[in-house]
Amino acid sequence: MELDIAHPVFQSFFETTTLEMAPMYGPPRLLGLFRRQRSAKRLLALANYENDIGEYWEYLDTGWFPIDLTNDAYKFGVNYVIYSLTH
């Protein structure tokens, strides 16, 4: 199921205002796997498709990507960790 900005995973620590990131290979999508496929149920897994948040983390120290994009990628990651620890 595709997730939107209203899902609590994107507001768990840093307030995320948009899910748009510079696409690396195609239009980015954020997909969630829920128990019994209902968004009211527990989020089991989250997939970042075509936005490569990990590449932004990996190349932060090389200067290949703008600092704003790498900061946003880290904010996504921190939100994911905080959400997983609190739910």
What's the quick description here?
The protein is of the alpha+beta class.
What's the tally of helices?
Answer: 2
What can be said about the biggest beta sheet? 2 strands, antiparallel
Helical residue percent? 25-40%
Q: From the structure provided, what is the oligomeric state, counting identical versus distinct chains?
A: single chain
**H/E element sequence:** EEHH
Name the beta content range: 5-15%
State the end-to-end distance: 19 Å
Number of domains: 1
Number of strands: 2
Give the overall silhouette: globular
Mean pLDDT: 85
Q: Return residue spans where pLDDT drops below 50 for at least 5 consecutive residues.
A: none
Radius of gyration: 13 Å
Query: In what order do the strands lie side by side in the largest sheet?
Result: 1-2
In words, what does this structure look like?
This protein is α+β, with helices and mostly antiparallel strands and 87 residues long. It has one domain. 30% of the residues lie in helices and 15% in strands. It has 2 helices and 2 strands; from the N terminus they run E-E-H-H. It has helices spanning 53-58, 67-86, and strands at residues 29-34, 43-49. The protein has a two-stranded antiparallel sheet. The longest helix has 20 residues, at 67-86. It is globular.
